[in-house]
Design goal:
five-stranded mixed beta sheet; single chain; six-stranded mixed beta sheet; alpha/beta; Nucleotidyltransferase, domain 5
């Protein structure tokens, strides 16, 4: 048994997992943490991450570093995603983080993010049957992976992130119909760019399944169950119907931020971006004619550990 840690530094959140992994590759979660630091706040491609967002995030990484030491994790694998692929000061952030915490952070591509996240999903959901489209709705981008059973076929990354779309299209509270329509049009046009890679015979087929992971999707599952306290065991494998998601969406768009904050199942700090995230999910379901979505609480964090362990052939 080896104790390892993984950190996922995203556009909206920074997450930590400390787990014990057995020689057969199975692992037991010891500690999980998540903090919303909004690294992608007011971000524009080719420009830098805001200094306030960097400060917030470094403070969280320092806290995580102390927890990793406290729990005696043998090794830590940290990755950075969407916003780091576009910012002109990513290297400065990585150097500053290393100086403050000793963490070596690796920026990964959207395609690699999708592949690693798929490993995490399979670890908790077991064998995926037939054909599957996996979506990971993030703050700055959404990753897509197409698989047959447990074998990935191809992956894509689109600039469809809940933070990015919120800042680009929503200025009103609650959002206006025209703001929502413009956002949906943008999403639909973006999705059309990957539709050609999915065989037409798959679309609408009972053997083509949709699986979702990350904050937007798990939040929708928590909202549907009106969870007062988040429970991963009630999230993994949960089936969300399009009807349920549409009902949640219609409720959210009528509520101002202050009322969204008090909804059971909606994590504090996500109330402003959940509408954009939900529109992404509905766009995917409509484009590829899915009636339901299977939810996975596990994803990139678990996949980081599994991927590292497999590459090391158990020698970590």
């Amino acid at each position: 048994m080896t104790r390892l840690a993984s950190i996922d530094i995203g556009t909206n959140t920074i997450r930590l997992l400390i787990a014990d992994i057995e020689t057969n590759g199975e692992f037991k979660r010891i500690l999980q943490r998540m903090e919303i630091t909004r690294l992608g706040e007011n971000f524009v491609k080719g420009r830098g991450i805001l200094q306030d967002a960097i400060k917030r995030s470094i403070e969280v990484l320092e806290e995580y570093s102390n927890l990793i030491k406290k729990y005696n994790a043998k090794k830590t694998f940290a990755v950075a995603t969407s916003v780091f692929r576009e910012a002109n000061n990513s290297d400065g952030f990585l150097k500053r983080a290393y100086k403050s915490t000793g963490l070596e952070i690796r920026v990964i591509s959207g395609i690699e993010e999708a592949r690693i996240g798929f490993l995490g999903i399979v670890s908790v959901m077991g064998s995926l049957i037939d054909k599957t489209l996996v979506i990971d709705v993030g703050g700055g981008s959404t990753e897509f992976l197409i698989a047959k059973g447990e074998s990935p076929i191809t992956a894509f990354s689109l600039d469809l992130g809940a933070v990015y779309l919120t800042e680009r299209f929503i200025q009103s509270d609650p959002p206006t119909p025209s703001e929502l329509e413009n956002m949906r049009d943008f999403i639909d046009k973006s999705l059309s760019s990957i539709a050609e890679y999915i065989p037409e015979t798959w679309i609408g087929s009972s053997t083509f399944n949709l699986v979702g992971t990350a904050g937007t999707v798990t939040t929708l599952a928590a909202l549907d169950q009106e969870m007062r306290t988040y429970d991963p065991d009630r999230i993994n494998g949960y089936l969300l119907t399009r009807e349920s998601i549409n009902r949640i969406y219609n409720m959210l768009v009528r509520l101002p931020l202050k009322k969204r904050r008090i909804l059971n199942g909606l994590e504090r700090g996500r109330e402003d971006i959940i509408i954009a995230g939900t529109v992404i999910v509905l766009g995917v379901m409509d484009t590829f004619r899915f009636d339901e979505l299977k939810v996975s609480d596990a994803g990139l964090l678990e996949g980081i550990i599994i991927d590292a362990y497999e590459k090391a052939e158990g020698s970590l």
